[in-house]
Amino acid sequence: MSSDDEDVFMLYWWLRNKKRKLRYWIHPLLKDKQHSSYIVAKELTTDEDKFQSFYRMSQVVFHRLVQSVGPHITKKDTNWRMVLEPEEKLIITLR
Q1: Cα-atom radius of gyration of the chain, to the nearest Å?
Q2: pLDDT in tens, the chain (95 residues)
Q3: Out of 22, 29, 59, 75, which residue is the most buried by the measure of CB atoms under 10 Å away?
């Protein structure tokens, strides 16, 4: 094996075994629910026109979409985290 082959092999091995460092489990902005888009959406539900212009669908269509998709995207709470509600997941996805 030549020196170049060994260098390539060592670089491949190093990149493959390199561990990513997790900075945080939940981003600090998302930990505090005041910055959540879900809060914004709840405020928008009071005005149908604002909701329509922000999400490009009416509230009736949104709730129908939550009913059809909700059971498929619902998870269970764990000891480490609380799950997001299906409405919140859908709002994040749409926005």
Answers
A1: 22
A2: 567 788 888 888 877 777 666 666 665 655 665 556 667 677 777 788 888 888 888 889 999 999 999 999 888 888 888 888 888 888 888 87
A3: 59
Contact 73, 66 (CB under 8 A): no
73 exposure class (CB count in 10 Å sphere: 0-12, 13-18, 19+): middle
Residue in 81, 29, 89 with CA at minimum distance from that of residue 62: 89
Residue 15: helix, strand or coil by DSSP?
helix
| Core vs surface per residue 14-50: b (16+ CB within 10 A) or e | eeeeeeeeeeeeeeeeeeeeeebebeebeebeeeeee
